[in-house]
Amino acid sequence: MIPDVFTLAELEAVDRELDCLVEQAQDQTGEGHVGPNRNPGWLLQLGLRSEITQRFVRDERVLDLISDIVRPGVAIYSAKLTAKMPQSTDICHWHQDNAYYNAHAMSMTRMSTWIPLTDTDVQNGCLWVVPGSHKGGVREHGQYGGQCPKAMGPADMIADGAVPCPVAAGDMLIFSSDLWHHSKENLTDRIRRAFIVSYQEATVPRGNGAQWKILREAV
């Protein structure tokens, strides 16, 4: 967890922009998201959607924080908005991001950044992780329902050593795309949003379709 990366004013501006983008998606699909089998309030391809979201995914402060790990060079793999609606019982089962990402591009240093737009805790669906689980490689995933199309197990799966990661607005979680993680229900009356950007080394020649873009050249 990296504290104080963004100001509250910056997050409020991004949140307002996301309101507009979600409304546009609702006009287009009637469901508030893009593509089949997704969840209310979710949006994909944020790095392509507007000038504000494009600036956010290439923020130099974030790139400085990850450039010693994601190397040589830094490229964007994908960016998306995940949301938990107020009083939602939907959960995202235990999974590893690379169980999805490896189908498009293989990376040795891919990392995900998890940026909440408001304070998150166990009441509104903060992330839970298993520290050190990224060292075991990608496990088999199947279809178990919930917010995530593929997962490591059903809703009652027990992950030994799991810990919650409450994150204040302005702070950021960064983690390996092999790390086990999931999130539970939102038991509050406010939506919980997280802006997720995944980065990989610039020497990997592709990412998730048109979202792939080199942000820092390999040297």
Can you offer a commentary on this structure?
- By secondary structure, this protein is of the alpha+beta class.
- The chain has a single domain, classed as q2cbj1_9rhob like domain (Jelly Rolls, Sandwich).
- 18% of the residues lie in helices and 22% in strands.
- It has four helices and ten strands; from the N terminus they run αβααββαβββββββ.
- The chain has helices spanning 8-29, 51-57, 60-66, 98-101; strands at residues 43-44, 74-84, 92-95, 111-116, 127-129, 163-165, 173-176, 181-183, 192-200, 213-216.
- The strands form two sheets. Strands 1, 2, 4, 7, 9 and 10 form a six-stranded antiparallel sheet that branches. A four-stranded antiparallel sheet has the order 3-8-5-6, with no helix packed on it.
- The protein is globular, with a radius of gyration of 16 Å.
- The chain starts with 7 loop residues before the first helix and ends with a strand.
Features:
219 residues, alpha+beta, Jelly Rolls, 4 helices, 10 strands, globular
Detail the topology: elements first, then pairings:
Elements lengths: L7 H22 L13 E2 L6 H7 L2 H7 L7 E11 L7 E4 L2 H4 L9 E6 L10 E3 L33 E3 L7 E4 L4 E3 L8 E9 L12 E4 L3
Antiparallel strand pairs: 1-2, 2-9, 2-10, 3-8, 4-7, 4-9, 5-6, 5-8
Text of the CATH class? Mainly Beta
CATH topology: Jelly Rolls
Report the order of strands and helices: HEHHEEHEEEEEEE
Weakly predicted, low-confidence segments:
none
What characterizes the major β-sheet?
Answer: 6 strands, antiparallel
Roughly what percent helix?
10-25%
Mean pLDDT: 93
- What's the overall geometry? globular
CATH architecture: Sandwich
Number of domains: 1
Which structural class is indicated by helix and strand composition? alpha+beta
Look at the structure and name the CATH superfamily.
q2cbj1_9rhob like domain
- How many strands appear in the DSSP assignment? 10
**Rg, nearest Å:** 16 Å
Report the portion of residues in β strands: 15-25%
For the record, give the distance between the C-alpha atoms at the N and C termini, rounded to a whole number: 28 Å
Count, helices:
4
